[in-house]
Amino acid sequence: MPQLEQVEFFISQLFWLGVFFVILFLVLTYFTLPKIRAFLNKRDEFVQSHISKQDELIKKAEQLIENYEQKLNEAKNQASKIIAEAKESALQDSEKLIKATEDKIQQEIKNTEERVSKEKSLAIEELNDQLKDSASTFLSKITSFDKGNIKV
Description:
Strand order of the largest sheet: 1-2
Strand content: under 5%
Structural class: mainly alpha
Distance between the termini: 201 Å
Shape: rod-shaped
Radius of gyration: 63 Å
């Protein structure tokens, strides 16, 4: 019975298996795998280019941060200098103002002392005049002549 004869059937299956395996191997080797390899290579190049761009961007960012920090430090130094100069200028201006005010006060004191001195001398002169008038009035009353007689 041919159905039970497995040897020929098995050999033909092995033959066709070998033929299809070789065809499949050749199709994969010459058509499919090169496309897959090309796609993988292209993807690797794409990834590498983006990684290199990323590295460049990171370096640029670090450089920008470094420049920013340097400029920030320079600005802080300039601000400190400006503040120090402003303090010094304010101190000088305040010293000038204090000196001018002190000079003005001293001048006012001098003027006031001169006015007080003048007023004092005027008061003394006026007092002397009043004393003279009082003395002359007193003497005139004491030494008044009544019809040629002296009354004491």
